């Protein structure tokens, strides 16, 4: 992108490359500190401001690093830290952009959502700690750090889902999420131990070096399959998706946005790095064909997610299932890999789609938060005629829906196009075909929301009593991002494909 | 940069009107939409280019910049006009403003949203007719669907939800089929193209650089791609039997939206057929001349027969579009200067005249609140001006000399009669000419029963002359129809220049 920006004459200490993650964690601590000073009267504005400011600062630093070339080929390659267990490279920075921008939108939106709640500081700091964990997930270069950062991201999420502790749905969702999450963590950590048993190493590069001549291909295969399961849980892919609709529906809407966008992207960050780095296609024993597993996962996830979404009557659940469908699209990034193929293009297209998805999906869930704030119901019927009372927000929601469906002129069109195009380029035209057909079908249920808002007339009169500034700002920001990512998609996809190519 | 300015100004106008208060949204929209008219007329006055933009001609007002690179293929922001697209841009800007003015009476709720969407659609239509990179073109092409969906779905008649969804699903599925067909061509061309710029692809295809892809050899791939793109565009045109979304959409849509639908949106289909199928793959088109000409003749006759059977004035005009678009396809497949040029000219002529007819029906409906032929008679007694323009427009539609419709149809018939692509072309032409008789039949029939005879009306509305702002757009359209009929060379010269390269060189 920008080849010749010379940042500094002598290299800074390597740990400064962790700045985005450190900033997020520090902001979480600062929030707790603020709360300690006056636990009862801490201003909601101050808390939301600090969290959004912290995550935007982390975003800015990550963007600066990415432009300046930190951890990329042109400045000396990935920065490896703490005995190679963490690595800062273009890919981790790219994913950090997704996490931080979603965190910023979610915290701004939560400002209005939390106005009547207690324990606000805890809410914001949990979000920030989860974001720290996600950033670490994108940097984890050892199966041990993968697991630790995954738990760092998950534990705050369990609490956040159950945050509305007087609401039965929220508590139930939290419990369900926690139970399924723990089991999946267990499965994954068992898989990790099997891989360790075969290779004697946890650092991804060393695992890759050791798998080639192993005699225990069967054990390795079990281990890999269990790690696939862990990843599938984190990304809410079929058949480990059952927790997702429940958790997303029960959780406070900003948290649903956070989980379905940022947390899902974090799962993909782990998947991309672990499978590409630790089990490279050229070196892995023939019996351990994880690409096939991801091909099956991708097709099944897209199809089931879409069909389940089409049958929902509740908008939040519909979005939850549609986000499962989108996990299927993003899985193409792993399913269309071949030894020696245009792998950087495919993986990069997946990453770019996740970035666009970060805007459009977060925006859609935040719109639901806005509607919940007004006390309108959650079914399609309840959305009837919303456009006549809140036209600006309805325009934003329309943008999200059509963009998720992949219609021009919105960002989602280009990112899906790039994804399917790269799959065809890699020779997997059938994956692209399944994706395109699913994408066309998805228009059916996305346009139901649009139809309800604009075309149907409202069943009963409702008055909009307030126009919450934070929620509006976040929704409009996401809408603007979704629109602007169409003309500005060039640098995004080029950066994504360049940093993805560096993995291979 | 004039094209970018045109698109940007229209988008901004859409935004401004969308947030403006309802009271003056209509006036504001009309005033702002005068800017793109001035821009397009300035382009027409300054026009200096020759040849076909896709086949090595020089392109007017060209901008070409790399937008993004994907897997070795560049996507460009590439816009420009030649003699084929410039008339359509002028048609779009003029018809949009007239449609906006004609909406002042019938549109009474959520006005700022209505006019905002109309302008949004206009901006995308300008984009469709000027984009010369497949990708940029496709973005605009699909983006036209979104405002149309709302315009029918929100402001339409009682059955609007069904009509809007049918329109959306039909045209969107068609776009997908077309997209797959075209992308297959791009992959088949492989390394011989480095971008999706239409000129590059057109020339590579004509030079025979297509290779095998996905198990199909080059010839089969080309035929499959031709059929896929043809079907995709044919839904938009629409040709029989893919036309069934059209009457639903037209009948439910409010008048100004019908005007845009018939006047400009249908031309997207024929324009794309000309640009893609008939320019890029003339060898396949000539090989398939019998089925294509057959479809054209069936559309002409069947569409006209359907129009003859209708009782609803708007349906009559709607089905007549199927018939008129059949002529355009016949002209295209003839592959003569007059055939292809006449088809292009007929796109403009039909845009003006069908817009005029829909508006006239709309003005009558605004007053009488009915469109049924049986409910009224002798309307001309009470609304002489509207009736007069209606009659004049109908004569234009029937192809009376010195009207634009005559010029278009004459060119097409001359071109397809002289065509050498197939020995049977004169027969097809002769069969299609019967359409003229039926057109005259249903129009005279409708006029005689509604406009003339003793006055009677089944309804409680008072029938008086329409307000000035309702009749003014009709008058402007009638004037333009006559001007183009008297002096077709205002456009036909540049059309011919752009059409000739399609007929020489390459696959023919």
UniProtKB/TrEMBL annotation, chain A:
GO terms for cellular component: membrane. The keyword Zinc does not apply. Residues 140-442 form the NADH:quinone oxidoreductase/Mrp antiporter transmembrane domain. Its main location: membrane. It is a multi-pass membrane protein. GO terms for biological process: ATP synthesis coupled electron transport. This is NADH dehydrogenase subunit N. It comes from the Archaea. Keywords: Membrane, Transmembrane, Transmembrane helix. The chain crosses the membrane at residues 12-34, 46-67, 87-111, 123-140, 146-165, 177-204, 216-233, 265-284, 290-311, 318-339, 351-371, 383-407, 427-448, 469-489. It is found in: Membrane. GO terms for molecular function: NADH dehydrogenase (ubiquinone) activity.
TrEMBL record, chain B:
Residues 131-433 form the NADH:quinone oxidoreductase/Mrp antiporter transmembrane domain. GO terms for molecular function: NADH dehydrogenase (ubiquinone) activity; NADH dehydrogenase activity; ubiquinone binding. It comes from the Archaea. It is found in: Membrane. InterPro entries: NADH_Q_OxRdtase_chainM/4, NADH_UbQ_OxRdtase, ND/Mrp_TM. It is a multi-pass membrane protein. Keywords: Membrane, Transmembrane, Transmembrane helix. The chain crosses the membrane at residues 29-47, 59-78, 84-104, 125-155, 167-189, 210-235, 255-274, 286-310, 316-335, 347-365, 385-413, 425-445, 471-492. GO terms for biological process: ATP synthesis coupled electron transport; electron transport coupled proton transport. GO terms for cellular component: membrane. PANTHER family: NADH-UBIQUINONE OXIDOREDUCTASE CHAIN 4 (PTHR43507). Belongs to the complex I subunit 4 family. This is NADH dehydrogenase subunit M. It comes from Halobellus limi.
